[in-house]
Amino acid sequence: MSNKVLVISGTVTAPEKSYSIGVVNLFLEHYTKLNPNDEIIHLDLNNEPMAQKTLTRDNFSTFFNEKDSLEYIKQLKSVDKVIISSPMNNFAVSGLIKNYLDHVLLADQTFSYKYSKKGDAIGLLDNLKVQIITTQGAPKGWYPFGDHSAFLKGTFEFVGADVKEPILLAGTKVAPLSGQTPIEAAKSIEDVVVNAAQCF
Ligand SMILES: Cc1cc2nc3c(=O)[nH]c(=O)nc-3n(C[C@H](O)[C@H](O)[C@H](O)COP(=O)(O)O)c2cc1C
Fold it and tell me: Which of this chain's residues are annotated to bind FMN (predicted)?
């Protein structure tokens, strides 16, 4: 059986210099060897006008429109798997990723409060398996208040997805990774990447 895989990238770094893209590419190298018939769809949020739009009081009434929200929700419902990557930017996901999520996290489209227990929701993206790939300049655990991997995992679980253990490449701003190319740095966690690709 072949699957459709949507690869969403939210870094603002040039692709050849990006650590998160480095890990995504390594993941895809292993994944496509195991799943040669899958369709891979790339969504670089730098190229999507919706990801440049932040929700404000002035645009609230037009923000969730067909082109910026519903088309992307339709895309999420049309695929089987999502690989989403984000660097840590100021203790959070990048603004591009936040703007993307703000457009697709829409009540009665991707989740519903109907029939749900207190504090919980019914996720409407239960078609999805999700692999999160994150990077951060600091070593792992330095900023527990800004855990972007946990934020993404919880968010996709909220919409009903089957979220795999996130892959985090931490410490890209300190030695030894800071002296390595993104490809070399990604290879430092290749065992984790291979294992995740096999389980996805
Ligand atoms: C605007 C900006 C903000 C950043 N904020 C943080 C941060 O809060 N914590 C951290 O550990 N690294 C931070 N970094 C470093 C990046 O997370 C790190 O360089 C990461 O590897 C970037 O991934 P990329 O190469 O795919 O863009 C920041 C980088 C930028 C450009």
Answer: 18-20
Q: Is 11 in the pocket of ligand 1 (CB under 6 A)?
A: yes
Q: To test ligand 1's pocket by mutation, which of 7, 8, 23, 88 has the most ligand atoms within 8 angstroms of CB?
A: 88
Ligand 1 atom showing the smallest separation from residue 92 Cα: 8
Percent of the chain with pLDDT over 70: 98
Query: Which residues sit opposite 131 in a β-bridge?
Result: 83
CATH of the domain at 19: 3.40.50.360
> What mean pLDDT value characterizes the chain?
96
**Domain extent for 21:** 4-199
Nearest CA to ligand 1 atom 7: 90
- The pLDDT confidence band at residue 45, using thresholds 50, 70 and 90, is very high
Task: Write down the pTM of the prediction.
Answer: 0.97
pLDDT in tens, 161-196: 999 999 999 999 999 999 999 999 999 999 999 999
> 172 CB less than 6 Å from ligand 1?
yes
Q: What sign does the CA torsion over 21, 27, 30, 36 have?
A: negative
142's CB contacts (< 8 A; 6+ apart) are 136
Domain count, the chain: 1
Handedness of CA 137, 101, 81, 35 (dihedral sign): negative
